[in-house]
Design a protein that fits this description.
InterPro entries: MTH938-like_sf (IPR036748), NDUFAF3/AAMDC (IPR007523). This protein has 124 residues and is an alpha/beta fold. It has helices spanning 57-61, 82-90, 100-112, and strands at 14-18, 21-24, 27-30, 33-36, 39-42, 68-72, 94-98, 117-121. It has a single domain (14-121), classed as 3-Layer(aba) Sandwich (Hypothetical Protein Mth938, Chain: A).
């Protein structure tokens, strides 16, 4: 089998999650996280009920650069609040909600495929 090394350039994969944060490019980041085309930033959302349209303002500002947003809702799957769903529909942005663990794994796969993916991840 031939192995091909992937160059992630400025979009590093998620190395680890848990313990209330993430490890990305060898750096520990505590708390929830946005992994957008423009880079990494902290996210003030700590529970699925806090994932309002306003909480996704940074994501919506970059909607033209994103084909799919993965939302890690914590340890379990939870639906997005209605206002957030409506905001994503208005922006024609595809959104998939799942557990944070599944979102991290899926993000890495799509990133390796050079897809226009972003993630909003509630820390676990």
């Amino acid at each position: 089998m031939r192995m091909i090394e992937i160059d992630y350039e400025a979009r590093p994969p998620i190395d680890a999650y848990g313990g209330g944060g993430f490890r990305i490019a060898g750096e520990k980041r505590l708390g929830s996280l946005l992994h957008l085309p423009s880079g990494l930033s902290t996210w003030s959302v700590a529970a699925p009920s806090e994932a309002t349209a306003e909480a996704f303002a940074a994501v919506l500002a970059e909607a033209g650069e994103i084909d799919v947003l993965l939302v890690g809702m914590g340890p379990d799957i939870a639906p997005l609040p209605r206002g957030a769903r409506e905001a994503f529909e208005a922006a024609a942005l595809g959104v998939e909600t799942m557990s944070t663990a599944a979102a991290c794994r899926t993000f890495n796969v799509l990133l390796a495929e050079d897809r226009r993916v972003a993630a909003a991840l509630i820390a676990v």
